[in-house]
Amino acid sequence: MSAGGTMHGVRDVVDVPEPRTVRVADGSRTGYYEFGDPDGKPVVALHGTPNAGAGFAWADAPARDRGVRVLAPDRPGVGDSDRWQLDHPITVADYAPSLRAFADALGLETVSVLGYSGGGPYALAAACAMPNRVTAAAVVSGAGEVGRWATIGDYDTTDKWLTRLALYASPIARATIAVSARFAGLAPGLSMRFAKLEMSETDRAVMDEFADAPTAVTVFTASCRRTTRGVVDDYAALGRPWGFDVETVTVPVRCWHAPTDPLVPIAHGEELVRRVPGAHLERWPGEGHLAIVRHVGEVLDWLVSPA
Fold first, then answer.
1. 202-217 average pLDDT score
2. Number of other residues whose CB lies within 10 A of the CB of residue 47
3. Interacting residues of 293 by C-beta distance below 8 A, sequence separation 6+
4. How far apart are alpha carbons 40 and 112 in whole angstroms?
5. What is the mean predicted confidence (pLDDT) over 144-157?
6. Which of 11, 63, 13 is nearest to 34 (CA)?
7. What integer pLDDT is reported at residue 12 of this predicted model?
8. Mean pLDDT in the chain?
9. Domain ranges of the chain
């Protein structure tokens, strides 16, 4: 379990708070969730795919124990955030200006970033683009760079399918995700049972710790609050080269990954730390893709005092 502080579990999450919104410099809107200590050290938490900032609700109590303010923005087009306004295929690197604008709008001079799963690449993009503002980057169960040291074929069946649809048949991807989100909202218990089919035993145990099925599926349904386009854009961006070189990242980076992660192979994290100067990989034996839920305190401890 997490080091330091009081132990908490996902059963502490009875309800996910309503999202907040902020207007950034270009007039667009970013939806975000806030957890932990409102006066604490800011950590920007970047969600996985197909998820939203709501998915960090289980970090609320551990963050509060540590005096950490967790800010979890929805990426463009996800949840309550306005969609990308770009005239080229979206890359992970395109997100750094959005994150800078979000930090500006909230008056955050410096932040540390936590990227989970599909959010890992975006955390690294921010670290690369803003070395004077990002103090440290934590990558947990992070996806690798497709086209360089990872392939779409590395992922589980659902993510392989949706990534390829996002890249080559986006209308079908949008329709598929819309149907899935509708089903999850109407039948959360059944939706959870289907989701567990691709999970490890330990991940299924984590899912069973949620207070109820509607709370557990909120992480997905919140991502499609307005449209499914942002989720599809996210899959597509993660299915192509990121648009920056991780070898140029200079801020402290630490990675955490379970050796038996069934969704994102640990080989992605191992290769990442070989490429990022000074990066270090911590392994969580016997855990799965959802290990962060039980170990988030360990990650927050490092982000508060990176070494």
1. 78
2. 29
3. 10, 58, 206, 209
4. 12
5. 95
6. 63
7. 53
8. 91
9. 10-304
